Amino acid sequence: MQSKPQLLAWLTCDAVHIDPGSGKHTILGIFSNIQARQFPVTHPYMVWFLTLTDCTPGPHHLRISMGLEAMRLAPFLDRDFESQSPLHRINLINEIRNLSFPQPGEYSLLVEVDDEPLLATSLTVSG
Fold first, then answer.
1. CB 3.0-4.6 Å disulfide test: which of 23, 75, 102, 124 passes with 33?
2. Which sequence spans correspond to the domains of the chain?
3. Which residues, including other chains, have CB under 8 Å from residue 60's CB and lie 6 or more apart?
4. pTM for the full predicted model
5. Residue 9 CA to chain centroid, in angstroms?
6. What is the distance, to the nearest Å, from the Cα of residue 59 to the centroid of all Cα atoms in its chain?
7. What homologous superfamily is domain 6-126 in, according to CATH?
8. Is the C-alpha dihedral spanning 22, 14, 49, 80 positive or negative?
9. 3-state helix, strand, coil in the chain (%, to 5)
10. Distance between CA 42 and CA 91 in Å, rounded?
């Protein structure tokens, strides 16, 4: 039986630096909410950083859906990635530019790999 991918880390942050010598990732400015003075508001740049494991060798598909209502999420990010081995830890850096929030609230996020839900979380946007 094939196991489903496992999500080891999910972070929203300002940036990720990869050291060219060691390959180590440095996570900068982790946050879980956005404050705005007025709405709609556009956040200029953030990174959704994920670490996955237990992915079978070969191609895979990441989808992140988002919305104000948990039952009515729209696909926001779709990308393919490769796994070399189920033992590998795969770090995916997803740069999000100019993300608009029409109103304050709890924005639901659903992370799926190969149509398999791995995480349901939220991002708070407040005034």
1. 124
2. 6-126
3. 5, 80, 81, 82, 83, 113, 114
4. 0.93
5. 9
6. 18
7. Immunoglobulins (2.60.40.10)
8. negative
9. 0, 70, 30
10. 26
